Structure formats: structure tokens, C-alpha cells
Amino acid sequence: MYDMATDAALDDVSKGFRTMAHPLRLKILCHLVQGPKTVGELIAVTGTSQPIISQHLAKLKTGNILEDERCGQYVYYRLGDGAFKLVDALKIICCAK
Q: Residue 67 in contact with residue 80, Cβ under 8 Å?
């Protein structure tokens, strides 16, 4: 048995789903479940241009779905702690081979 979620918690989850609700963002998230990636790596695996990838990464970061870390000249994007389980479940459903 589960406790009922608060309205505030449900609102946060709803905002997260809205942030992720784009096919390219879901594709990015499926790749990030495997581990951190740079913009260049995401361009290679999605076949999308740098400006478009960067725009979607910014939305995911603003929505607290992603975190980033600079390492030398590269920025690595990874799933935030709160998003990992949700995205892992989405990967099982949507990204299975």
C-alpha cells in the first residue's frame, strides 16, 4: 500500500513529464541512462545538429532532469538523481531493441 502523494509532489512530477515530453528529449535521456555524454557524443548518436541538441539539453537542465559537469574543454551531461529511476523505466518501455 502506498501513501497518497501531496499536490505539490504531483505538480513537480507533472512538470518533469512535460519537460521530457518530446521525442528527441526522450531519445537523449535513453542514451544518458547508459552514462554521461558530451554534446558531441549526443550529436553522433541522435544524428541531430548541435544547436538543436543544446536547446533540448538546456530545457532538460532547467527542468532539473539533467546535471552537467565540466571536465577540461568538455561538458558532460548526466541524469539528475531524481530523474534516473523514471528515465530508466521509460528506457525499458520505449528504447528496448
A: yes
Between CA 81 and CA 47, with CA 18 as vertex, the angle to 5 degrees is 80
Write the CATH number for 85.
1.10.10.10
61 with 21: CB under 8 angstroms? no
* Contact by Cβ (8 Å): 33, 88: yes
Assess whether pLDDT exceeds 90 at residue 75.
Answer: yes
Q: Say if CB 29 and CB 65 are below 8 A apart.
A: yes
Determine the pLDDT at residue 64: 86
Is 57 inside any structural domain? yes
CB 35, CB 69: distance < 8 Å:
no
Q: What domain range is 61 assigned to?
A: 7-94
